[in-house]
Design goal:
137 residues, Immunoglobulin-like, four-stranded antiparallel β-sheet, rod-shaped
């Protein structure tokens, strides 16, 4: 019985030794670390409206075109003229567009920095007429 107990103790010691030798301690600060930084997402949002003279309406049917290092994204405008999406950290070129050839959106392009925070109030206004109307801020 005593020999079985010694044999079992040796097996347990070998098993624990084998398990400990398989554990690898990883320093998160080392350059060859398999750990990665989590991806941060930031929200970009705003409103898009049409202006015809003194009448301002939501730009139903318009969309937002976002151009960044990771590609081009198309974001539809909701029925109240608002839009919102989440993007990875970075700098983006943002434009409002629609399928009407006579609409000019102001500003034509906005550069939005999403490297440290979300951006709200990224608004656009489309002038439908070619009269003397100017966009309001």
């Amino acid at each position: 019985m005593k020999s079985k107990l010694i044999f079992a103790s040796i097996l347990v010691s070998l098993f624990i030794g084998l398990m400990v030798s398989q554990v690898k301690v990883v320093n998160a600060e080392s350059s060859n670390s398999p750990l990665t930084t989590p991806i941060s997402y930031f929200e970009i949002s705003g409103k898009v409206t049409y202006r015809l003279g003194n009448i301002v309406r939501p730009a139903v049917g318009a969309f937002i075109k976002v151009i960044g290092n990771t590609g081009i994204f198309i974001i539809p405008v909701n029925s109240d003229g608002s839009y919102s999406t989440y993007l990875t950290a970075g700098e983006y070129k943002v434009q409002a567009q629609d399928h009407r050839s006579q609409t000019t959106f102001y500003p034509t392009t906005r550069i939005v920095d999403l490297r440290e925070a979300s951006a709200s109030g990224v608004n656009f206004q489309g002038l439908v007429s070619t009269g003397s109307a100017t966009p309001s801020n």
